[in-house]
Design goal:
This protein is an alpha/beta fold. It contains 14 helices and 22 strands.
Length: 542
């Protein structure tokens, strides 16, 4: 039986931090920091019990920080975002972030023990790979003796060279252009900033704390490519992937993968998979025109479905699109739909319950039913999502923006206090449905049939507010109806004969029939039609 991939994304820096009443812009001493040891066998067992198959530990690699540790070269505060620093400003690709260790010199051993505990709990281990950029002060003190550090052999007198690891602006000094940053940071010649900013004066909106890696594209000369012979950066980054894969991790979530040429992935991923069969690669890609390129040529297993399903469901939840818009959304990905990673929250997006999104986690229950059950695609949940974390703190560098900070030392009040009855109901809904996604064969691996064309607006159905579809493996048939309306609804859903023909189900009693059911406001019903006529018990919250 092939298990549906269900990913629990968690930021260890926050997850295990139980220090109450954090202060904005607080230091690690003031606000505390979660450790890898917080993921005990008991905790991991509970995560597995919720229904998850994989856990993505976000922010494991050593990154730039304003916290100073003995025997680790400090970072200049001018090029660190927040006191803790961004997990995506990598300082050492071969090391674990010291913030996460109980005993800093033993941080790699603590990581290796976490991999073992994760596997013993029945979970697979995913970690970040950040291929496009590094911290401005990148310096690996943990690299193998045979490795030459990134940039150590670069020609600093040219903007581009095939075997340079960075891009340079010869004769120009890097300058911080916003007043909130200290002014005594020196970098000459200036290196190009991570978001393709070819200026020595990046703005506050640029990724000014990072440096762009050079994969052999000469951007200042028409984007000419220099891929043969293989650029030095390709070899070094492939070695980094192999280093972590050898520690028995099960997958990589590749940050901003589309900013790295697909030719690199075509080179690197097969090398990793040859030595480590079964390892998966998930790409953060936002350009639909490049989806098939990164899947088919780049060898990625899964891509973010952000600009498609996430954006559509968010718009439906907030009343900016009718529920019927979901049909065109899934049609746009077509044959590659099984390779799209569905989600409603992650570290880049605003929390569902925040004032900037829905204001109430319950309003996204119908979206959960759609994103989780409409296909065989992997589904991801961000920690705190199952209890309606709001993300409405002003933590420091991360202001009150509806997101949980990735830049600051912080703790989440919802995770420290006993959860409310409402939160228990929400978590129960997630747990029941996540487990159902794998325990029911039709939902786990069955085909999909959109019912919207057969259910135009009428007395029993409103396509602006309800979305209905079927899933079947040829034996079991499951109907899912999501209600994006605050008002309860007695729905009458038409099941056309063509749907049964589509699934190869031969039953005279189940042709051109209606299913009548009651939908709670902001709820959904998942009901088994074919073998059994009883409803799969919906959670009380739904």
């Amino acid at each position: 039986m092939k298990e549906k991939i269900l990913i629990y994304q968690v930021l260890p820096r926050l997850f295990g931090n139980h220090k109450p009443n954090p202060v904005p812009h607080g230091t690690i001493t003031e606000n505390g920091c979660g450790k890898l040891s917080a993921f005990t066998p008991k905790v991991l067992k509970e995560i597995r019990k919720l229904g998850f198959s994989h856990i993505w530990y976000t922010g494991l690699l050593e990154h730039a920080t304003q916290t100073v540790y003995p025997d680790i070269r400090p970072d200049h505060p001018a090029v660190v975002k927040g006191k803790a620093g961004s997990p995506y400003a990598i300082k050492d690709y071969y090391d674990i972030d010291p913030d996460l260790a109980d005993v800093v010199p033993d941080r790699m051993k603590e990581f290796e023990k976490l991999v073992v505990r994760t596997h013993k709990a029945g979970l697979k281990f995913i970690m970040d790979f950040v291929p496009n950029h590094v911290a401005r002060g990148y310096n690996s003190d943990a690299k193998p003796d045979s490795v030459i550090d990134l940039g150590a052999a670069d020609n600093l007198h040219t903007s581009f060279a095939r075997n340079n690891n960075f891009y340079y602006l010869p004769g120009q000094q890097f300058q911080i252009t916003h007043e909130s940053r200290p002014a005594n940071y020196h970098e000459s010649p200036a290196k190009v900033t991570g978001n393709d900013c070819f200026s020595p004066h990046p703005t506050p909106n640029d990724w000014y704390e990072t440096v762009k890696l050079n994969y052999g594209i000469d951007y200042l000369n028409g984007g000419r490519t220099h891929f043969s012979p293989i650029p030095d950066t390709w070899k070094k980054m492939t070695d980094i992937l192999l280093f972590w894969a050898s520690k028995q991790v099960d997958g990589f979530r590749c940050d901003m993968a589309e900013m790295v040429p697909v030719e690199f992935w075509e080179y690197a991923i097969p090398k990793v998979k040859e030595k480590h069969p079964g390892i998966i690669f998930i790409a953060e890609v936002y350009n639909p025109e490049q989806y098939r390129n990164y899947l088919q040529r780049g060898h990625f297993d899964y891509l973010y479905d952000k600009v498609g399903l996430y954006d559509t469901l968010r718009a439906v939840v907030t009343g900016n699109l009718p529920a019927s818009a979901i049909t065109a959304c899934w049609q746009s990905t077509g044959d590659i739909q099984p390779n799209m990673l569905n989600f409603l929250e992650n570290h880049d997006e605003q929390r569902i319950a925040s004032d900037f999104f829905a204001g109430d986690a319950q309003k996204a229950i119908p979206a959960l039913a759609v994103a989780l059950f409409m296909n065989t695609s992997p589904f991801m949940v961000y920690f705190g999502q199952t209890i309606g974390e709001r993300g409405m703190d002003a933590e420091g560098f991360s202001g009150r923006d509806g997101r949980t900070t990735i830049f600051d030392y912080w703790s989440m009040p919802n995770c420290l206090s006993p959860i409310t009855a409402e939160q228990k109901k929400l978590r129960s809904c997630y747990a029941e449905w996540l487990n159902l996604a794998n325990s029911n064969s039709a939902l786990r691996e069955g085909d999909f049939y959109d019912l919207m064309y057969a259910n135009p607006s009428g007395e029993g159905f409103n396509p602006d507010k309800q979305y209905a579809f079927l899933r079947s493996d040829g034996k079991d048939l499951v109907l899912v109806v999501a209600n994006f309306d605050a008002q309860p609804k007695d729905a009458r859903v038409f099941l056309p004969a063509h749907a049964f023909d589509h699934f190869g189900i031969r039953s005279k009693a189940l042709r051109d029939t209606y299913c009548e059911l009651h939908l709670e406001g902001y709820g959904a019903v998942i009901t088994e039609i074919c073998r059994h006529t009883s409803y799969l018990r919906p959670p009380k919250t739904a």
